[in-house]
């Protein structure tokens, strides 16, 4: 298993915030909102979190894997190589698009 960058499997993320709370460097930030599901006839309405933003600040990340280990839905997985150096700190903030796995699986 290559322990490099971290990928977000967005369809599995429930916005529970466990990854952000358990991260020792607080490099993960996420926002979400609540949506109500359409109930089946006779059932009560339910709400669930919907992910709005998810960002990892690679200038803070220690690549420790705590977020991956603690994620109850396996929405975070090890990706390929480490994130390359950048010209500015802003370039080390990766959002949902950059954290998505590539077609090649890594």
Which helices and strands appear, and what pairs or packs with what?
Blueprint (H helix, E strand, L loop, with lengths): L5 E3 L9 H5 L5 E10 L8 E12 L8 H5 L5 E3 L14 E2 L1 H4 L7
Antiparallel strand pairs: 1-4, 2-3, 3-5
Report the count of strand segments.
5
Instruction: Estimate percent helicity.
Output: 10-25%
Major beta sheet summary? 3 strands, antiparallel
CATH domain class name: Alpha Beta
Mean pLDDT across the residues is 89
- Structural class comes to alpha+beta
Tally the helices: 3
The main sheet orders its strands as: 2-3-5
Q: Give, in order, the helices and strands.
A: EHEEHEEH
Instruction: Quote the CATH topology.
Output: Alpha-Beta Plaits
CATH architecture: 2-Layer Sandwich
**Molecular shape:** elongated
Task: Describe this structure as you would to a colleague.
There is one protein chain. With 106 residues, the protein is of the alpha+beta class. The protein has a single domain, classed as Alpha-Beta Plaits (2-Layer Sandwich), CATH 3.30.70.3270. Helix content is 13%, strand content 28%. The protein contains three helices and five strands, in the order βαββαββα. It has a three-stranded antiparallel beta sheet. The protein has a two-stranded antiparallel ribbon with strand order 1-4. A hairpin with an 8-residue loop joins β2 and β3. The longest helix has 5 residues. The protein is elongated, with a radius of gyration of 16 Å. GO terms for molecular function: 4 iron, 4 sulfur cluster binding; metal ion binding; oxidoreductase activity, acting on NAD(P)H; quinone binding. It comes from Tessaracoccus oleiagri. One of its GO terms (cellular component) is membrane.
């Amino acid at each position: 298993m290559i322990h490099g960058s971290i990928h977000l499997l967005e369809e599995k993320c429930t916005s529970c915030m466990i990854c952000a709370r358990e991260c020792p460097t607080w490099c993960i930030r996420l926002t979400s909102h609540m949506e109500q599901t359409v109930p089946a006839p006779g059932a009560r309405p339910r709400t669930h979190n919907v992910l709005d933003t998810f960002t990892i600040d690679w200038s803070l990340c220690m690549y420790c894997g705590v977020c991956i280990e603690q994620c109850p839905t396996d929405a975070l997985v090890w990706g390929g190589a480490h994130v390359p150096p950048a010209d500015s700190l802003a370039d080390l903030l990766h959002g949902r698009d950059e954290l998505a796995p590539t077609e090649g699986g890594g």
